[in-house]
Amino acid sequence: MKTMAKVTVVGLGPGAWSGLPLGTYTILEEQQRTGGAVYFRTERHPVVDDLRQKGIVFAALDHFYEQAENFTDVYQRITEHLLKEALEKSHIVYAVPGHPGVAETTVQNLRRQGKAAGVEVVIGPGHSFLDDLLVAVGVDPADGMLLLDGTSLLPRQLNPSLHTVIMQVYSQDVASDIKLTLMEQYSDEYEVTVVRAIGVPGEEKVVTVPLYELDRLDFIDHLTSLYVPKTEEEAVVNRQLWKFVEIIKALRDPDTGCPWDLKQTHQSLRKYLLEEAYEAADAIDQDDPYALADELGDVLLQIVLHAQIGAEEGTFDIYEVIRSVSDKMIRRHPHVFGGGMEADTAEAVVANWAEIKAQEKEEKGEVPQSILDDVPRSLPAVTAALKLQKKAAKVGFDWDDIHDVYSKVKEEINELQETTDKSDEFGDVLFAMINLARFLDLDPEEALAGTNRKFRDRFQYIEARLREQGKSPEDSTLEEMDRLWNEAKNR
């Protein structure tokens, strides 16, 4: 039976000679004595000069960092090189900074790819920088800790309620990227601790600075890591979705919750959901981004409150809500997420959306009895009328010419004048006017909202001008108000 080729991976410790594991030195020395090959991922490590002085000969792989555009490619090329060398030489030793099992992508690559390549990967001794760093900042990892890679840091990885150590802060450029990512969660003044060459006498630096100064430190290099302390500060924690979910859960606690919140059901909250949506729409109309942020928070409150009620009933929770809509967005955007469809225009996206939605309903066994079934009966009347007309128009039930629509509007107005059933005929007038808006490519809801804003602005002008005169609309004549109305129109 043929013996597999082998890579023995050892760690060089955090940097000081005193931190080099005895087992690592023994393996390196034995490999040297038997004429075996030794590779260092990098020679940029404080203990390397000590090993040279003791006669350890090795090949450094730093040149790979100059041959690729990103770290992922660098580490893959190093992995492929090591596997090739192991197959040719039967056994090699590969040394990495710190501990082989901590923050070493090449080691993880070797473990994943070694077996298929016919190479056994053995993990040897090491001493992680993490041990010394945690001692330096006074943190017990059992208190809850995140360990993240600074070269690929994502906002979704952060959790301010946990101590966070960010490794691989290789340069000021990397530190700048880290700073910007952290600022999505933490304030500019939030204090973080920068740790360089931990455990290396004469080179070690442990400096605490406000976050905004992180990338201004001139000593940042390949031996640098960052510690971000956990916090319960409201300004930080209250930005987290999980915290908001906890707040709503507390409001619904049967023993200590709020009596009003405890009383609510899906049905009782229905009107509030609609009201908050309309208030958010009003903030959009007012072009007020700060008001919009506030109103969207109120909409989110309704969503999370409904989700909490669902969780209590055992039907769904907030994570099911998020999963469902995430699945839907991916499924209905195949042109973005690789589903085989193309869509170069907004119109093509809408067409794809409708087709995929129809397929989904068919797969669920939902066979519509009418093309109008997709229009919810609870929609506001103007919006519902527009949607109903669009649905009917898609199958040819529509006017051919806009002049016919104008004629229909006039016809309905005449009928309104002549009938005693004013409510029914007035509805017909509105329906015809909405049809006209559709032909004019206008949104009737937006058009009417604009007129409402115009009326509000002009009438408030009348009130303001009357106040200047010590009067109010109640004790003014129609002629006075009409004159001021015309003033408002001509401003």
Automatic annotation (TrEMBL):
<dbReference type="Pfam" id="PF00590">
    <property type="entry name" value="TP_methylase"/>
</dbReference>
<dbReference type="GO" id="GO:0006203">
    <property type="term" value="P:dGTP catabolic process"/>
</dbReference>
<dbReference type="GO" id="GO:0046061">
    <property type="term" value="P:dATP catabolic process"/>
</dbReference>
<feature type="domain" description="Tetrapyrrole methylase">
    <location>
        <begin position="6"/>
        <end position="215"/>
    </location>
</feature>
<dbReference type="InterPro" id="IPR000878">
    <property type="entry name" value="4pyrrol_Mease"/>
</dbReference>
<dbReference type="InterPro" id="IPR035013">
    <property type="entry name" value="YabN_N"/>
</dbReference>
<dbReference type="InterPro" id="IPR024180">
    <property type="entry name" value="Tetrapyrrole_Mease/MazG_pred"/>
</dbReference>
<feature type="region of interest" description="Disordered">
    <location>
        <begin position="469"/>
        <end position="491"/>
    </location>
</feature>
<dbReference type="GO" id="GO:0047429">
    <property type="term" value="F:nucleoside triphosphate diphosphatase activity"/>
</dbReference>
<keyword id="KW-0378">Hydrolase</keyword>
<dbReference type="InterPro" id="IPR014777">
    <property type="entry name" value="4pyrrole_Mease_sub1"/>
</dbReference>
<feature type="domain" description="NTP pyrophosphohydrolase MazG-like">
    <location>
        <begin position="264"/>
        <end position="337"/>
    </location>
</feature>
<dbReference type="GO" id="GO:0046076">
    <property type="term" value="P:dTTP catabolic process"/>
</dbReference>
<dbReference type="GO" id="GO:0046047">
    <property type="term" value="P:TTP catabolic process"/>
</dbReference>
<dbReference type="Pfam" id="PF03819">
    <property type="entry name" value="MazG"/>
</dbReference>
<dbReference type="InterPro" id="IPR035996">
    <property type="entry name" value="4pyrrol_Methylase_sf"/>
</dbReference>
<dbReference type="GO" id="GO:0046081">
    <property type="term" value="P:dUTP catabolic process"/>
</dbReference>
<dbReference type="GO" id="GO:0006950">
    <property type="term" value="P:response to stress"/>
</dbReference>
<dbReference type="GO" id="GO:0008168">
    <property type="term" value="F:methyltransferase activity"/>
</dbReference>
<dbReference type="InterPro" id="IPR048015">
    <property type="entry name" value="NTP-PPase_MazG-like_N"/>
</dbReference>
<dbReference type="GO" id="GO:0046052">
    <property type="term" value="P:UTP catabolic process"/>
</dbReference>
<dbReference type="InterPro" id="IPR011551">
    <property type="entry name" value="NTP_PyrPHydrolase_MazG"/>
</dbReference>
<protein>
    <submittedName>
        <fullName>Nucleoside triphosphate pyrophosphohydrolase</fullName>
    </submittedName>
</protein>
<dbReference type="InterPro" id="IPR048011">
    <property type="entry name" value="NTP-PPase_MazG-like_C"/>
</dbReference>
<dbReference type="InterPro" id="IPR004518">
    <property type="entry name" value="MazG-like_dom"/>
</dbReference>
